[in-house]
Amino acid sequence: MRFDYTSVDPSTNTLWIAHMDASQLLAFDLVHRRIIRTIPVPGVHGVIAVPQLGRVYAAATNDRQALTLDARTGAILARAPAGEYPDGLAYDPVERHIFVSDEAGGVETVLNAAGHRVATIPLGGAAGNVQYDAGSRRILVDVQTRNDIAVIDPRTNRVVRRVPLRGCHSDHSLLVDSPHQLAFVTCSGNARLLTLDLRTMKVTGGFDVGDEKRRCRRLRRDHARRQASRARASGPPRTHRRRRPTHAPRVLPTPERLGRPTRAPHHETDLTVTRTP
After folding, report:
1. 178, containing H or E segment
2. Most buried in the list 64, 137, 199, 277, measured by CB within 10 Å?
């Protein structure tokens, strides 16, 4: 079972969870720690709660739609076409618009607060995650097949800049930390994590976070070991004999010589070790 995006609504103490494989959007009560609502959303990927609007927006990927829901009741208020493969979402609090990444279509779909499509923005490549940067008041989108980030002016709904990501192959995930003027980019093609300075729009650091092929080989190897272990457990029992040591045993001082009492051994193989004064 695979889960995808999550989003917290502090005004209702609700965690919204995209249960992608089950095609369900879950509302989880953070106070009572239980699921309070299950909403059918075919192939749901992205979800974002917007407390300022009292709304939740979700990507119904299998239906190629973006849904608008009432944050308190879970009722679906609007449906809008969102391209070939709607995925992640971001909210611009200034323009009060929602941006939806269409990964396969290579565009960014723009919705108004009511959930109606008002624009589409060509990205020139497969779209990855999308984030809003409060410092610059810009929308940032990973463009995976170009290995760069498209910077969108939400007032004009146009790409105004491209940021190349040297050393990154297929940038998919993106997290913006506006207070610290940083962004973090994951490169799924070569298992790298990059740090981007939002003031200069320059990559300032890169870290290896694992090798995908090596990880897959390790998973296959572990699976084979588990199968072999189960096969041994279901087969006839095996008797293992411990070989006697061929070297002469070390002779320890006896308790009588040391003048100290000792316990009686519970088994003939027990060995009591004493320390000489």
Report:
1. none
2. 64
- Contact of 176 with 162, CB cutoff 8 Å: no
Per-residue burial over 95-130, b if 16 or more Cβ lie within 10 Å, else e, is bebbbbbbbebbbbbbbbbebebebbbebebbbbbb
Instruction: Give Dmax over CA atoms of the chain in angstroms.
Output: 96
At 50 the three-state DSSP class reads strand
H-type helices in the chain, by residue range? 212-234, 255-258
Position 1 scores a pLDDT of 79
Span 118-142, mean pLDDT?
A: 98
Query: Tokens standing for 69?
Result: 């829901």
Q: Which residue has the tokens 């004009």?
A: 156
Quick one: what percent of the chain has pLDDT higher than 70?
A: 76
> How far is it, in rounded angstroms, from Cα 101 to Cα 228?
44
Q: What is the pLDDT of residue 210?
A: 76
Helix (H, G, I), strand (E, B) or coil at 238: coil
Q: What is the DSSP letter of 233?
A: H
First to last CA, the chain: 64
Indicate left, alpha or beta for 96 from its phi (over 0: left) and psi (-120 to 50: alpha).
Answer: left
User: What is the mean pLDDT of the segment spanning 227-235?
Assistant: 57
252: pLDDT strictly greater than 50: no
β-strands 34-40, 44-50 pairing: unpaired
The pTM assigned to this predicted structure is 0.76
The tens digit of pLDDT for each residue in 145-155 reads: 999 999 999 99
E-assigned strand segments in 138-188? 138-143, 148-153, 158-164, 171-177, 182-187
Average the pLDDT over 205-222 and give the result. 66
CA 9 to each of CA 13, 47, 71, 98: distance values in angstroms, whole numbers, following the listed order: 6, 11, 8, 16
Per-residue pLDDT, 218: 53
C-alpha to C-alpha distance for 107 and 89, rounded to whole angstroms: 12
